[in-house]
Amino acid sequence: MLQPDVSLDKSKKIGSTPKKVDTRSRSPLISERFIALIRKRLEAGKRVARSLPGWGRIHIDRQLPFLCVYRRPVGVQDMGTEQLVTGQASYLIAAGDRKYHKGLSLLIEQIATTMQEVYGAFLIVEVWSGLHNEGHDSDPLHKPTFRIVASKKTALMSTVDELAEALCAIKIQEVPAIVDVALGERPQPTSMPVLLTSKKAREIGCHFLGLTVKPIYRDPDSGTVFPLVLRTIKRGMTRAYRRGFFDFVHNHTLHQPAHFHSLGPRAIVKVVWQVDTQLAEVSNVFDLLLALTPTNIHEAWLAFKRSKYERPPEFTYRRLPFDPSLLKRQLYKIPIDRIEDPTLSDLFSKQQYGIDQRISMMVERGTVNVLYGSLQAYGPVDHALYKTAVEILSDLPARSREPKPAVAVDANTLANHARDELNYLRRTHPEINSGVEVRKDIIGLMVSRGDLLIGADTKVPQSRVRALLAHELGTHVVTYLNGRAQPFKQLYVGLPGYDELQEGLAVMAEYLVGGLSRPRMRLLAGRVAGVAQMIDGASFVDVFRELHTSFGFTKRIAFNMAVRFFRGGGLTKDAVYLRGLLYLLDYIRQGGRIESLYVGKFALEHLPIIEELQLRHVLGPARLRPPYLDDEAALNRLDRIRKGTSILTLIKEAN
Q: How many Cβ atoms sit within 10 Å of the Cβ of residue 327?
């Protein structure tokens, strides 16, 4: 497991007064001793993270043939611009005062020389703000605008083109960026001296590009920074840098990385681990599904029967073991704003918002506000999904039930099967500490923090046992344990919207082991139909009747389904099973690798981020592999999905 490297974490918030002074750089100027120290670390392949005299810092993650540079102009409030280079694998921000220039120039020369000796060439991209008033009056949306500056005879045209194309993809409020390329201009701010003379740059194999940015990320009058705009621009520029560096590295150096994301930072600074831990601590205080699941389901069913199915049941819930206001206060004290890496900052910000949503849903139990929060967390039922659900219910009629087994498997027997499955996983990973518990206060099966919970009244056909174990253990428990093996706790806590992919994987696991029966498929489709009716305003009794009368579910099954929809005040989560399955099938048909999806608990939209972090060696591969992925019959079924077979055809052929 990757461990946090904090031994060299000297980063400080720009503009703040450092609490500790690096005794090796007490000089008010950049000294020869300081420069020698930096060069020595780079030659040894070690990370550099040091404050610079006056203002700024240098951060070089490892030996790399490029450097992003920002110099703060003298007498100008250039708020926010330095953040457009921080978070890169190799960057330097420094004061633009002339008294620092000689030492800064020598420092950059030594960095370039050292890295050129390793790679054969070196690239410096200097960033500064400009174009202040261009389009300000006529363009209220403030289009993101960039100018790439290069010498007239530059050998970097392919790099310039790659950088320009990536910058063009940046959008603010759906307004695309304007990118201009200026050849023949000095690729450094005109108000500052050159970092290296042309002659010196040629001698050491150093290339320069300039990048001017229109500062739409701050108010032109007050200088107030717009954080969301700045974050969007920084994220887009990060991708553009890497694509440009990737082209430069391939065409001008001896290094041949496999992907542009592999040029991103690998070392993780202390604040990232702090944020990850604190988010997990808040999230681990509660379990949303347990908090929203009634504790009196059996009693509610008996009362519903006595009312001849006319009076909606009254539910009771577990008491919340925390103060929601204090928990939210703790949540928003987490210093996500101090994270420079735009990928991680964006990911953690969304996680923070998602946790806030879940806390609010628990506070609002028993009110319609839970439904509103659920729609935000799990999404609505769109027309296409509802249409697919109705088609499944029509094509797989209610009479297509499995033959009744001679002996139904009860909760305790199912628990023993589950323990056997966990023991199988422990043969190769003895550290697994997940358990199985039979409980009276839940319906069916549920995984909570890596443990399998089984409702005491649960009875399933023998033919469904393997499918249930593949669903709960082979997917939910395996991804939880894989997430715990990663350096970031959020991968077992679950990133925002992870339920859709999780349930899609789990249902597909049922198919792969040959256990996705017609009744099970009808149940998933019925959940979509029932959730849609609830969203449209139908009552508990109305949804129960529709499920029983129109769709042919038994009264007890229809009741259990309705309980799941209306628990807490309205939960749309049950629609994600079918939706997640359909999205997953499309992903596989388009050539997606299913093995990539078991790294932890995340949404399909997070997969590019997961893959980026793996390319950066921040995340590793999944440690546990579901047993069914090594089964020949399961792999044959997976191949049928890749060939484009529809879900209904798959189910009909399998039964």
A: 19
Give the pLDDT band (50/70/90) at residue 20: very low
Q: What is the pLDDT of residues 614-652, one digit of tens each?
A: 999 999 999 999 988 989 999 999 999 998 877 777 777
Q: Total structural domains in the chain?
A: 2
Residues 423, 473: Cα–Cα separation, whole Å: 11
* Mean pLDDT to the nearest integer, 513-535: 94
Burial (CB count within 10 angstroms: exposed 0-12, middle 13-18, buried 19+), residue 626: buried
Write out the DSSP string of 179-225: EEEEESS-SS-TTS--SS-HHHHHHTTEEEEEEEE--TTB-TTT--B
Check if the beta carbon of residue 353 is closer than 8 Å to that of residue 547.
Answer: no
AA identity, residue 645: T
Q: Is 337 domain-assigned? A: no
Pick from 89, 160, 257: nearest CA to 168: 160
Same domain assignment for residues 230 and 311: no
* CATH code where residue 211 lies: 3.40.630
Phi-psi category of 35—alpha, beta or left, where left has phi over 0 and alpha has psi -120 to 50? alpha
Asked if residue 103 and residue 158 are part of one domain, the reply reads: yes
Q: Which residues contact 166 (CB under 8 A, 6 or more apart)?
A: 236, 239, 240, 243, 244
Report the distance separating Cα 357 and Cα 379, nearest Å.
13
Asked if 405 and 466 sit in the same domain, the reply is yes
What's the pLDDT at 226? 94
pLDDT of residue 272: 95
Domain around 35: 30-258
